[in-house]
Amino acid sequence: MQAHHAGPGPSHRWERLAPGVVRRRLPQWDATVGAVGGTEGVLLIDTGSTLAEGAGIRSELRELFGRAVTHVALTHPHFDHVLGTAAFSGVQVYGAVGAAEVLEHSRDTLRADAVTHGVAPDAAAEAVDVLVRPRHPVSGEITLSLGGGRRATLANVGPGHTGHDLAVLVPGGAEDPAGPAPDVVFCGDLVEESGEPQAGPDAHTARWPDALDRLLALGGEDALYVPGHGAVVDADFLRAQRDTLARRFTLS
Ligand SMILES: [Zn+2]
Q1: What are the backbone dihedrals phi and psi of residue 176, each rounded to the nearest 5 degrees, phi first?
Q2: What is the pLDDT at residue 10?
Q3: Residue 62, by phi and psi: left (phi above 0), alpha (psi -120 to 50) or beta?
Q4: DSSP element (H, E) containing 82
Q5: How many Å lie between the centroid of ligand 1 and the Cα of residue 161?
Q6: Of the N and C termini of the chain, which has fewer Cβ atoms inside 10 Å?
Q7: Helix (H) or strand (E) segment spanning residue 226
Q8: DSSP code at position 192
C-alpha cells in the first residue's frame, strides 16, 4: 500500500494498524471495516450499511492498495456490517457456517433494523433486495493467502454476540523494515470499546465469555484487537470485557 499521509482522501480516513493492514471507523454507528492487502488480493472485513457505503469503501481501497477487493469476510449478520456487500462484484464471500441461511431468512429484520437505526428506507430496501449471502461457510478456521506472504485466518469463534460470529487474524511478520509487525485480530461485535457490548435477541449471552477466550487464544498476549465499534484494544481489555460480560449475563 501507499505510505500513510495526512490530508484529504482515503489515507486520511483509514487507520494503518500494520503493514498492509488498515481499518476505518464508518460514520453514524462507528462500525469498523478492515482490509488486508497482499500482492495478489485484498480481503475486506465487513462492508458497511448500504450499497453507497460499500461503493465508497470499494473505491477508497482501490486507491489505497492499487487493486480491487477480492475477498470479503462478514463478521456477523447485522445490517451495519453486511449491507454493503453487493457493491463488490466477483468477490469470494466468507461467513461463519449458518450465517448465509440467517441472512436469507432475516431480510425483513435486516431492513427494519437498518431503518430503525436511521438508514433511509429506500437505501435499506435496495441493499436487502440485492443481499449477498456468503458462499464460503467457515467452521473452525481457514487461511487465505493474499500474495507476498500476506495471510489472514478466518476463525469461527462464536456464538456470542450472534449465533454466527467470525473473527479474522492477520499474523504480523518480521519483514517490516520498521521492526516486527503486530498480529491484528478483527473481533466483530464480540468486542466493543465505544460502549457496552450490544446484546440483541440473537445474542448467545451464556456463551459469549467463551468466545472472548477463543479470541484471546487466537491473538495471544501482544495482538492488536480491533472491536466492531470503537478504538483498538489489547488483551487486558478483552479479559476485562469477558469478566464483565460473565457477571452481566450471570446476574440477568
Ligand atoms: Zn452486531
Answers
A1: -75, 125
A2: 76
A3: alpha
A4: helix 79-82
A5: 7
A6: C
A7: strand 224-226
A8: B
The helix (H) or strand (E) run that includes residue 56 is helix 51-65
Rounded distance between C-alpha atoms, residue 80 and residue 102, angstroms: 15
Distance 186 CA to ligand 1 centre (A): 13
Give 95's strand partners: 74, 137
Grid-cell match 523494515, residue found: 177
Q: How far is the CA of 227 from the centre of ligand 1 (A)?
A: 11
d(CA 226, ligand 1 centre) in Å:
14
C-alpha 149 – ligand 1 centre gap (Å): 31
Beta strands in 58-183 (DSSP E): 71-74, 92-96, 136-138, 141-147, 150-156, 166-170
pLDDT, residue 250, reads 84
By the CB criterion, residues less than 5 angstroms from ion ligand 1 are 78, 189
Tell me the whole-structure pTM to 2 decimals. 0.94
